[in-house]
Amino acid sequence: MKNYSVRMIRENMENIPQFPIPDGYAIRNYRRNEGHIWTRILKAGEPYMEIDDGLFDREFKRHLSVMEDRSFYLTTDTGEEIGTITAWWQNINKEVWGQIHWVVIHPDYQGNGLSKPMMTVAMERLKQSHERCFLGTSTGRPAAIKVYLDFGFMPDLSHENSREAWTEVASVLEHPLLGEFMS
């Protein structure tokens, strides 16, 4: 299967699924000067992109003042940061959309249902400021796509090769919303 970049959209912020943070974990806000933690988590958990020490600054330096409100770390009960998610925004066609941005969990903790509580926190934050939201991902991440579908995100077919990309996703991921959307 090719690894396409794809976008998913959620047209409203109603009925956000609520997943509690499991025992033994917590979610806290980013604190000033913690970009190195974000970078460490991404270097460990991002399989498709080369993560360098300057990525955090390239992504967030212009808006560091809002990171403490919009970026979150998943921690163990001992305080070790093992995941990150950001409730960001982008201008799309002269409208400001919320954006789920950089969802990463350290590989040692993946597959334990931890991304859904992180999504709940980030989506609730987006709901405070935005009427709709989107995210970018890749077709090589079917487990992540399933989570996003469970949170009401739908494939955005407006980009080049998007129909082909989503057809490939549908061939490896059975999900009622995806099947309904692609028919």
Topology:
Layout: E1 5-10, E2 25-29, H1 35-45, H2 55-60, H3 67-70, E3 71-76, E4 81-92, E5 95-105, H4 115-129, E6 133-138, H5 142-150, E7 154-155, H6 162-172, H7 176-182
Parallel strand pairs: 5-6
Antiparallel strand pairs: 1-6, 1-7, 2-3, 3-4, 4-5
What's a quick, concise take on this entry?
With 183 residues, this protein is of the alpha+beta class. The protein contains 7 helices and 7 strands, in the order ββαααβββαβαβαα.
Overall CATH class: Alpha Beta
CATH arch. level architecture: 3-Layer(aba) Sandwich
Radius of gyration: 16 Å
Q: Kindly report how far apart the N and C termini lie.
A: 20 Å
Spatial shape: globular
* Cross-sheet strand order for the largest sheet: 2-3-4-5-6-1-7
- What low-confidence regions span 5 or more consecutive residues with pLDDT below 50? none
Strand segment tally: 7
Largest beta-sheet characterization: 7 strands, mixed
Helix content: 25-40%
By CATH, the topology is Aminopeptidase
The chain-level structural class is alpha+beta
Number of DSSP helical runs: 7
What is the typical, i.e. mean, pLDDT? 94
Succession of helices and strands:
EEHHHEEEHEHEHH
Kindly estimate the percentage of residues that lie in beta strands according to DSSP: 25-35%
